[in-house]
From TrEMBL:
<protein>
    <recommendedName>
        <fullName>Replication restart protein PriB</fullName>
    </recommendedName>
</protein>
<keyword id="KW-0639">Primosome</keyword>
<dbReference type="InterPro" id="IPR023646">
    <property type="entry name" value="Prisomal_replication_PriB"/>
</dbReference>
<dbReference type="GO" id="GO:0006269">
    <property type="term" value="P:DNA replication, synthesis of primer"/>
</dbReference>
<keyword id="KW-0238">DNA-binding</keyword>
<dbReference type="GO" id="GO:0003697">
    <property type="term" value="F:single-stranded DNA binding"/>
</dbReference>
<dbReference type="InterPro" id="IPR000424">
    <property type="entry name" value="Primosome_PriB/ssb"/>
</dbReference>
<keyword id="KW-0235">DNA replication</keyword>
<comment type="function">
    <text>Involved in the restart of stalled replication forks, which reloads the replicative helicase on sites other than the origin of replication; the PriA-PriB pathway is the major replication restart pathway. During primosome assembly it facilitates complex formation between PriA and DnaT on DNA; stabilizes PriA on DNA. Stimulates the DNA unwinding activity of PriA helicase.</text>
</comment>
<comment type="similarity">
    <text>Belongs to the PriB family.</text>
</comment>
<dbReference type="Pfam" id="PF22657">
    <property type="entry name" value="SSB_1"/>
</dbReference>
<dbReference type="GO" id="GO:1990077">
    <property type="term" value="C:primosome complex"/>
</dbReference>
<comment type="subunit">
    <text>Homodimer. Interacts with PriA and DnaT. Component of the replication restart primosome. Primosome assembly occurs via a 'hand-off' mechanism. PriA binds to replication forks, subsequently PriB then DnaT bind; DnaT then displaces ssDNA to generate the helicase loading substrate.</text>
</comment>
<dbReference type="InterPro" id="IPR012340">
    <property type="entry name" value="NA-bd_OB-fold"/>
</dbReference>
């Protein structure tokens, strides 16, 4: 396993919620959003319907671009997973998105 790619997530999802664009103490644009994913997969020989709601965050120019997208629009998101400092849940850090 390549350690540089050990934490990489690629997800096709729709934008379910967009918070207001905010700025970090350093002045960097930041955007909190919620993504919804639906698909069918095979698991243990059975067809399974998968539904996932994912908390996500984006920073910089990417946050500004995402803030302009429509709720309900579908994209392919790429990034990594991390736990916030004071939290136990995972947050998807979006590093790029596109059609």
């Amino acid at each position: 396993m390549n350690p540089d790619n050990a934490n990489h997530l690629s997800l096709v999802a729709v934008i379910a919620e967009l918070a207001a664009l905010r700025y970090t103490p350093a002045g960097m644009p930041a955007l909190d959003l919620r993504l919804e994913h639906q698909s069918r997969v095979q698991e243990a020989g059975q067809d399974r319907q998968v539904v996932a709601n994912v908390k996500a965050v984006a920073f910089g120019v990417l946050a500004e671009r995402l803030a302009q997208q429509a709720i309900g629009s579908q994209w392919k998101f790429q990034g990594f997973l991390a736990s916030p400092r004071q939290g136990k849940s995972l947050v998807f850090h979006v590093q790029e998105f596109g059609a």
